[in-house]
């Protein structure tokens, strides 16, 4: 039996069997590079440390129960400029977890609250912290069900022991029964002992009524806001971004439909009114660079024919209309039919 064969059971007994994955490679490397015994041992043990760290990270990510692998690198800060990028990147260092501080992310649906919260959770996992992600509804439902089988305290520990607890979509629905008390109990037990991140569609001023009791709400909000970082995000939804221009599909023409917008944020100027009659007008569109839609060529001008759509009746009366992207006529519009080609030639 060779020395290598005798080494295998020894490493397994010491719970160092992971060394076997790189032992042969490191032995060959040591012989070729004439490494000292100390350098050889260091490299071999460094492989084991790296392997264990990777395995522990996988366990932390699995236990965190994230909905999706969200990262700060994947977050598009240019879409909604209201997102405080410097503050988010500072939170990404996870010092707030070490200091047992809270992060409160508020804003309308679709602006990236859950993405940011889970991205911070991912960073915390990689920094070695235990993290748990849960929606407010699921958390409160579990606590309510635990009262039926007398496992309330054990279930409560699941939400109070992680170094970072991420509660998503607080206030999406009203709290009922003892849910306000349960939420306060989690906040109280985690106060200055662990970090908590909460996302909500409601402004902070709307949180106190959720508890159903003024004194309970005052005590909970006082603890939440102490040592807290508040991120207020405004803007459009990532899931349904506003479409500034859409192309019509009438044969033989590249047409532009200027859609009505509830909020005129990006400099698109138009006059809304009744559906135009007669021949379509002509407007000049200027494609400009914009952080929300990439690829536009700034300063380029083109003349477009505007065709009315019965379902979107409007008239464009401004000579210069600023748009976010210039659509090529040849790419979007079908080719002209035989009759229209002949007519155009005439």
Please identify, by name, the CATH architecture of the largest domain. 3-Layer(aba) Sandwich
> How many distinct helices?
12
Please report the distance between the alpha carbons of the first and last residues: 95 Å
Rg value: 30 Å
CATH class call of the largest domain: Alpha Beta
How many separate structural domains? Answer: 3
Q: What class, by secondary structure content? A: alpha/beta
H/E element order: HHHHHEHEHHEHEHEEEEEEHH
Mean pLDDT: 74
Q: Can you tell me the CATH topology of the largest domain? A: Rossmann fold
Mind describing the biggest β-sheet? 5 strands, parallel
Number of strands: 10
User: What is the subunit arrangement here?
Assistant: single chain
Strand content: 15-25%
- The CATH superfamily name of the largest domain is P-loop containing nucleotide triphosphate hydrolases
Residues in helix, %? 25-40%
Poorly predicted sequence stretches spanning 5 or more consecutive residues: 244-346
Overall body shape: elongated
Walkthrough of the structure:
By secondary structure, the protein is an alpha/beta fold. The chain folds into three domains: 3-62, no CATH class; 85-232, 3-Layer(aba) Sandwich (Rossmann fold), CATH 3.40.50; 245-336, no CATH class. Helix content is 39%, strand content 15%. The strands form two sheets. Strands 2-3-4-1-5 form a five-stranded parallel sheet. A five-stranded mixed sheet has the order 6-7-9-8-10, with no helix packed on it. α2 (20-33) runs antiparallel to α3 (37-64), α3 (37-64) packs antiparallel against α6 and α7 (136-146) packs antiparallel against α8 (152-160). The relative contact order is 0.10. Mean pLDDT is 74; it is low at 244-346.
């Amino acid at each position: 039996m060779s020395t290598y064969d005798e080494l295998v059971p020894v490493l397994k007994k010491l719970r160092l069997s992971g060394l076997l994955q790189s032992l042969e490679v490191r032995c060959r490397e040591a012989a070729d590079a004439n490494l000292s015994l100390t350098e050889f041992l260091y490299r071999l043990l460094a492989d084991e440390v790296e392997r264990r760290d990777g395995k522990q990270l996988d366990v932390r990510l699995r236990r965190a129960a994230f909905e999706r692998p969200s990262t700060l690198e994947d977050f598009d800060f240019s879409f909604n400029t209201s997102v405080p990028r410097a503050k988010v990147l500072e939170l990404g260092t996870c010092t707030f977890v070490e200091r047992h501080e809270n992060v409160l992310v508020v804003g309308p649906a679709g602006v990236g609250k859950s993405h940011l919260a889970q991205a911070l959770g991912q960073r915390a996992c990689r920094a070695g912290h235990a993290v748990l992600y849960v929606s407010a509804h699921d958390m409160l439902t579990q606590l309510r069900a635990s009262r039926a089988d007398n496992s309330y305290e054990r279930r409560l520990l699941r939400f109070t022991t992680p170094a970072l607890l991420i509660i998503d979509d607080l206030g999406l629905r009203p709290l009922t029964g003892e849910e306000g008390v349960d939420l306060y109990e989690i906040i109280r037990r985690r106060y200055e002992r662990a970090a908590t991140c909460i996302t909500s569609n409601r402004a902070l001023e709307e949180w106190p009524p959720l508890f159903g009791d003024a004194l309970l709400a005052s005590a909970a909000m006082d603890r939440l806001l102490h040592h807290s970082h508040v991120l207020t995000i405004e803007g459009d939804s990532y899931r349904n971004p506003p479409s500034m221009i859409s192309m019509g599909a009438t044969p033989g023409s590249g047409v532009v439909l200027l859609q009505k917008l509830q909020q005129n944020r990006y400099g698109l100027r138009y006059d809304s009114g009744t559906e135009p009659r007669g021949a379509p007008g002509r407007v000049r569109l200027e494609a400009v660079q914009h952080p929300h839609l990439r690829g536009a060529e700034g300063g380029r001008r083109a003349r477009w024919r505007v065709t009315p759509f019965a379902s979107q009746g409007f008239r464009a009366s401004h000579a210069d209309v600023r748009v976010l992207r210039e659509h090529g006529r040849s790419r979007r519009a079908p080719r002209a039919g035989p009759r229209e080609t002949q007519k155009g030639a005439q």
